[in-house]
Specification:
This protein is α/β, with parallel strands linked by helices and about 300 residues long. The chain has one domain: Arginase, Chain A. It has ten helices and eight strands. Strands 2-1-3-8-7-4-5-6 form an eight-stranded parallel beta sheet, sandwiched between helices. α5 packs across α6.
Amino acid sequence: MDLPIIYHPDYVAPLPERHRFPMPKFGKLYELLLTDSIATPEQFHIPNPPSTEWIELVHTPDYIQCYRQGTLKPKAQRRIGLPWSTALVNRTCTAVGGTILTAQLALTHGLACNTAGGTHHAFPSYGSGFCIFNDLAITARVLQQLGLVQKILILDLDVHQGDGTAFIFQNEPKVFTFSMHCEANFPGTKQKSDLDIPLPVGMDDDAYLQTLAKYLPDILSEFQPDLVLYDAGVDPHASDRFGKLALTDTGIYRREMQVLSTCIAGSYPVASVIGGGYSDNLNALIYRHSLLHRAASEVYHQYRL
């Protein structure tokens, strides 16, 4: 079997023009992976939304109900940053189901990738920064509840700190949160991950990859997770609207190869999500997100998974 990939067909549903920049990339990423022969249609799996009980492993019932019904207070809705709609509710829940399925497939095949996911700013009782339900946190707790894993490493390389994820797991020794992010960036108030590596504005490819290499192998060998949930945000790119770091396309690809090879060589299964990425040049952004899948395909075949 080839590398399993999760596809979200309803991510192309229309939104108001001023809010479209986070959304069309999901369907277009799927199209690019097929066009460039990175994947075949047979590799894609379409997820189902999770049960309410699974979402409640992380989020409060009141928040879940208010979001689904569109009754959040205006301030709470503005904090999310996306206009409410039934289509967005469906996409939000489907994205969570996609990350759960990605993780399940990674446990079976060693490596799997999502074409969405990485909503790490969502807290138990509110959303923030385009994040509504925290798919990484929900996935971790679902897999633990199902008895599929005990220890999980959440490796967050989005340019923004995974503050919601850090808060959720702040007192849970079975989940290790590692966030390597730009120090002078959103969120203004950082939470405490198990390991936070704040990076200076303008850090380039070599400095970034050397920093990552300094920490990741030791975390894996010391914590020995049953699964790695990898948030492969491409917003550390030099041209990202919200980034402030200076990685190139080559640097992003080298990062993906470094992360995936390090984990797979140590026999740690990896479930990857695409995380953040924001650009006025949509085609360039889609290509950057595809670098995760290009690297994953190469690693998957290199290690004969």
